[in-house]
Write a structure and sequence with these properties.
The complex is a heterodimer. Chain A contains twelve helices and 22 strands. By secondary structure, chain A is of the alpha+beta class. The longest helix of chain A has 24 residues. Chain B is globular, with a radius of gyration of 20 Å. Classes of the chains: A alpha+beta, B alpha/beta.
Chain lengths: 480, 399
């Protein structure tokens, strides 16, 4: 029996206040007034779909061993690299490399569900597959998308052991219905009229597909306990459910009020939301629309209640900081030619040969542990750092990303270039040994103190725009 | 311990350029400014020089690599010129090379010259950089103030010093140096500053404010060394000889092992101890007449005075507030104004400090002249508290 064995999510800490966005843009787009309520998630400057997917994957793997994962599927319409396996970066960050098949899936808002179908099928023989979906969606200034979109990620582990939601069936149709597109030469979506999308798209394509899925799964519409269908038109999922005999009470909230639509990740984020609430026996239908439809049906099992606790969508949603500064949102998304100063000019060229040699250190935060004296250290080196040891060639790889750590010393630096000044950094010490000077992220004056507990998080360090946007990733410390 | 070089080397002459924002000068002009004074003071002909050591730290923003820039600028007689770089200890490192050449007998006259032209970068502060291609992938972003600010937070934590007390103490460090620098025509900043202004200055990297940071400036300094015997034959009086030169370099234990608490300079403790041994100094607090230490930041100076074993650990801030290191205190520190008033043209600073010691011991320090100083100690700290080079030099009257 294949199905979902664990879930995880990630939502950036910052939540952009929609009223603040509207207030800045109403001189130009007064018609957006109806959208000026609640908030949307907003990636920090050092977050992209890869970093968010890594965090969601770590959340998902709270209960499972990363090294058991055999396949990684990474769905997004905003993969940071066009030609470089994005899923592979996630694999290296999770310290899963050997015996791993990594696949990027994109090109449509239903990429998340397509990845989930692929993951479930790949896991039928028992090889666990990790499915991560994330989007950091760009939208034009003063557009409705800017208010409706959100940034976030979800991850699901597929397998055959201790399944918490077994796959009942899935069904897909593919039709080149272009409700919107984003060409190779643009950062932004271009969409057609909503009424046409509703009447000729959703209404004519989705119901037959749902009915096909219900028939294939041998269930009735009224059997569906949780109906998940992302859409920028909140009435549409309700209409689709009604047409297919699915109860109105089953239609899941679109999470628009305080998260926003997270693109390719959204169906899976809503699935995590549903799984958190679901009881054994519940039937969950996931519908994703985007040049066709993917539909998956799951049945929640008794194993769900045994799944160890994780942050999940609710936990990450609860970690929140309101952001009312719309200009900061624009600057973080490189949509404001802000004066960065000469300190931002230094060359960020990455020696790819060094990155390859040190990939476990840089992407996996793998240090060393001395077999002679037991000292943990970062980075791993050939000579033990312990002044009373200095043993040679004595260290085993030692993964540190998940370990508890605390601030030994820190500063808030107003001189260093940071896209979000002041730059916080300091010496981080690990309870089990090891330390290094680390950049901090998601940090405020109130939280950062000597002795404060921190958690390491995978983030963008630099973006080499001189060479087309090679993003350097490394680990930063964030307040717990 | 090795026998050391105590009294084997004498400073024959020294020179120091005016420090500051020398928009009028490149590194070459600065070198020559210091060198002309130095050569004249030494009283030898350039052709008598047999070896030279040349220090710069961020050579990519001015002279470039190798010994060629020095040799070409001064038109040296095709002698060996060694370019040295050891961060902020570079100047002392050049001096060490020249002294060792003389002490070994390899040269009778050796030149040490340090220069840094920092003000051609287009912005204030030191040029950034993250080391090699691996460091660029993981070293925390950061600036010198940010790294040394953490010394302050760790020091307060280790010794239970309140933020207010520390701020007052480091404020006094800067206040005292500005008082001294106001009397020095070669200093970059020659203005006394009110305590109020220091305490209320804008924050650079908390808790360090603007006046807790030394300036960024251009400058050069030089020394010609020989043996005391040759100096005497040349008819020199008031000979200043080298008593000790020591260096200690971090090996990663502070930055990578949890035994260090961030509140002190491990290397300075080691280098100063070795220097006292080499110089035969038993009680430094009683025997040393004056200091020029590495006050890149006010808190660096405060902590350094403990690590040089002058103030008790955790009590240095009290000595500072008691005026122990003021011009009229027990042991004046930064009598020339320090990095605080000279700024820090990196390759030159160590030699600039020795220049003041040399002037003071010879009684040539003008309005700053201390009464009868016999032993002077200089100190440089290159890098950051967690990983650094600490260099110390002790010079004194040759008797």
């Amino acid at each position: 029996m294949v199905g979902i064995v664990a879930f995880g999510a990630y939502v950036p800490r910052l939540r952009l206040n929609r009223q603040a966005v509207y207030d800045a843009n109403k001189w130009f787009a007064a018609g957006l007034r109806g959208l000026a309520k609640g908030e949307r998630s907003m990636a920090n400057w050092d977050e992209d779909s890869i970093t968010m997917a890594v965090e969601a994957s770590r959340d998902c793997l709270t209960s499972h061993k990363a090294e058991d994962v055999r396949n990684i599927y990474f769905a997004s319409t905003t993969h940071p690299f066009k030609d470089r396996q994005n899923a592979g970066v996630i694999g290296t960050a999770l310290n899963v490399e050997q015996n791993l098949s990594a696949t990027d899936i994109g090109g449509s808002l239903k990429a998340g569900t397509s990845a989930l179908i692929a993951g479930l099928n790949a896991s039928k023989d028992g090889a666990p597959s990790l499915v991560a979906a994330a989007d950091k969606r760009m939208a034009r200034v003063a557009s409705s998308n800017e208010l409706n979109y959100g940034d976030g990620a979800a991850a699901l582990l597929c397998g055959t052991e201790n399944v918490i939601a077994k796959l009942v069936g899935h069904h897909s149709v593919s039709m080149d219905f272009v409700d919107h597109f984003r060409g190779d030469e643009s950062d932004f979506d271009y969409g057609w009229e909503e009424r046409w999308i509703r009447d000729e798209g959703y209404s004519k394509i989705v119901p037959p597909a749902i009915k096909g899925a219900l028939a294939a799964c041998k269930i009735k519409g009224s059997d569906v306990t949780h109906f998940i269908m992302p859409s920028l038109m909140p009435a549409v999922p309700k209409q689709m459910a009604k047409i297919c005999g699915i109860g109105e009470g089953a239609v899941r909230d679109l999470l628009g009020a305080n998260l926003g639509d997270t693109g390719a990740a959204h169906a899976l984020i809503m699935l995590v939301d549903a799984l958190e609430a679901a009881k054994a026996g519940d039937k969950i239908m996931v519908v994703a629309f985007g040049q066709g439809v993917d539909i998956l049906v799951f049945e929640v099992t008794a194993e769900k209640d045994k799944l160890p606790k994780r942050k999940g969508l609710s936990g990450w949603m609860a970690r929140r900081k309101e952001e009312k500064n719309y200009l900061k949102f624009l600057a973080f998304n490189e949509m404001l030619p802000i004066e960065k100063g000469m300190r931002a000019e230094f060359d960020k060229k990455t020696a790819l040969s060094v990155l390859w040699r040190k990939r476990d250190m840089i992407y996996g935060l793998v240090g060393g542990k001395c077999r002679v004296c037991g000292t943990a250290q970062f980075p791993r080196s050939q000579v033990c750092v312990n002044p009373n040891c200095h043993a040679i060639d004595s260290q085993d790889p030692y993964a540190m990303a998940g370990l508890e750590c605390a601030v030994m010393s820190f500063t808030a630096d107003s001189l260093v270039y940071s896209p979000d000044p002041p730059g916080y950094y300091g010496m981080i010490t690990f309870a089990e040994g090891g330390r290094f000077m680390a950049d901090f992220t998601d940090s405020d004056k109130e939280q950062v103190k000597v002795g404060a507990k921190m958690r390491m998080t995978f983030r963008i360090r630099d973006n080499d725009t001189m060479r087309g946007g090679f993003k350097r990733y490394f680990w930063k410390a964030a307040p717990v | 311990m090795a026998r050391g070089i105590k009294d084997k080397v004498a400073i024959l002459g020294m020179g120091c350029s005016k420090f500051g924002e020398r928009w009028d000068s490149g590194a070459e002009e600065l070198m020559l400014e210091a060198y002309k004074e130095c050569l004249k003071d030494a009283g030898i002909d350039q052709n008598q020089l047999q070896a030279a050591w040349f220090s710069t730290a961020i050579d990519e923003v001015h002279v470039g690599k190798s010994g060629i820039p020095l040799s070409t600028t001064l038109r040296l007689p095709n002698i060996p010129v060694t370019h040295v770089e050891n961060m902020c200890a570079s100047g002392t490192e050049a001096f060490r090379g020249a002294c060792y050449a003389v002490a070994s007998g390899a040269a009778d006259f050796a030149l040490a010259l340090g220069v840094e032209k920092l003000k051609d970068t287009g912005y204030g502060g030191l040029p950034g950089g993250r080391g090699g291609p691996l460091q660029a992938l993981w070293n925390a972003s950061g600036t010198a103030p940010g790294n040394f600010a953490q010394l302050a937070t760790a020091y307060m934590t280790a010794h239970g010093v309140s933020g207010e007390d520390l701020k007052k103490a480091i404020g006094h460090v800067s206040w005292k140096s500005h008082q001294n620098g106001a009397k020095n025509p070669k200093a970059h900043l020659q203005k006394a500053v009110e305590m109020e202004t220091i305490l209320n200055a804008p924050m650079i990297a908390s808790p360090l404010g603007l006046f807790d940071c030394c300036g960024v400036s251009d400058g050069a300094a030089a020394a010609i060394v020989t043996t005391p015997e040759i100096a005497k034959v040349m008819g020199k009086h008031d000979i200043v000889s080298v008593k000790a030169l020591q260096l200690s370099v971090s090996n990663g234990s502070e930055s990578g092992h949890n035994s260090w608490d961030g509140s002190y300079f491990h290397t300075t403790r080691i280098a100063s101890k070795k220097a006292y041994e080499e110089a035969g100094i038993k009680s430094p607090r009683d025997e040393i007449s004056m200091f020029e230490v590495h006050d890149c930041f006010s808190v660096t100076e405060l902590v350094t005075m403990e690590d040089l074993h002058i103030s008790e650990t955790g009590k240095g801030w009290r000595d500072v507030l008691d005026g122990f290191y003021d011009a009229d205190g027990k042991i004046p520190c930064q009598i020339d104004g320090g990095l605080k008033c000279f700024g820090h043209p990196i390759g030159a600073s160590g030699l600039r400090m020795l220049y003041e010691m040399y002037l003071q011991i010879q009684g040539k320090a003008g309005p700053r002249q201390l009464k009868n100083p016999r032993i002077g100690m200089t100190h440089n700290l290159g890098g950051a508290p967690r990983e650094n080079i600490s260099s110390v030099a002790i010079v004194g009257r040759y008797e």
